[in-house]
Amino acid sequence: MPSLIESKAVPTAVPYSTGDPAMDERLRQLLADWGTPACRECLEMLMSVLKFAKQNPLRADRKLFNQTLKELRYANKIFNQYRDRKKVVVFGSARTPHRNREYTAAHDFGALMVKAGYMVITGGGDGIMGAAQDGAGRENSFGLNIALPFEQKANPVIFGDPKLINFRYFFTRKLNFVRESHAIALFPGGFGTMDEGFEAITLMQTGKAPLQPIVFVDAPGGNFWRTFEKYLREHLLRDGLISDYDFHLFKFTDDLRAAEKEILTFYYNFHSYRIVDRQLVIRVQRAVPDGALKRLRDDFADIVGSHDDLKTCLALPEEANEPELAHLPRLCLTFNLKAYGRLRQLIDRLNDF
To answer: Quick check: helix, strand or coil at residue 167?
Structure first.
């Protein structure tokens, strides 16, 4: 996925370099000999490695940088084979026993999403994770396992599968959860589940990750997440620590069909978006009628630059690296880069047309 936010207003003043022009040229030649002469980012990574080595880093720092790059590269290799499939991440406790209603709900949810054409990503462990993967089946599952001295081991469904990816670091694992998913479902869980949920919401609330459906799913009749929602409203919202529109970034339900609908409906007409400076380009699968644009301008005047700002447009030059999306209808507006909960409401409206 390309960078979500790009800037054309502040060009890079000085090209990235090792500081040694002769060494820079040797690195360019190395990439050419390797068969990847046009990979500017690869060149900059090589330069960064050499600059890092010159900093006399501690052994612990060398290990951290080395392992991080290895984990990100390998995960990218695995996921690149499945770019044509949408994926839902399922978070939840590794300790949930098979007899619990939450286990059954996670199993059935995994099966529902596979029938809808999705693959399922979990942390690869037991409990909720194993239940969702059992419902999805091995061929439709990814496991992003973490090396822990206790509790976490690969569940039997994903054990030994090439789509089981092992991580040493939580931050590289969590990056892949959000980066590779098209939707997130959270079942009851402990600190890890709360961490994963809050991080996903924070990334979307701040625009650091593209919006996608986030659904907190209870077993039928359960109130685990309703209690959590009550806390959010009575403390974070009431005390002014979050905004009311932030609640549009996620949904609470104890109905598996409602959770499935929340995810599928998000992509009914909406396709994707990119931000260039403050210009938001929303790609849709079907054009929005002219009459509807006026209503949208009125209803979302608080997040657009001017009354006539929301309009149809062609692909921007900055989108040239995604030629496969050039044919999609588009809307352009000057977005305030703040109220992402309101942007989610706008996307919901686009899906209604």
So the answer is: strand
The SS3 call for residue 334 is strand
- For 160-185, the pLDDT digits (tens) are 999 999 999 999 999 999 999 999 99
Distances (CA, A) of 261 to 16, 37, 91, 183, 265: 46, 45, 18, 12, 6
DSSP letter for each residue of 93-104: -S---TTSHHHH
What angle is formed at CA 309 by the lines to CA 304 and CA 311, rounded to 5 degrees? 115
How many angstroms separate the CA atoms of 105 and 218, rounded?
8
| Spatial separation of the C-alpha atoms in residues 249 and 340, rounded to whole Å | 8
Work out the percent of the chain whose per-residue pLDDT is above 90.
84
Confidence of residue 7 (pLDDT cuts 50, 70, 90): very low
Dist CA 47 CA 155 (whole Å): 40
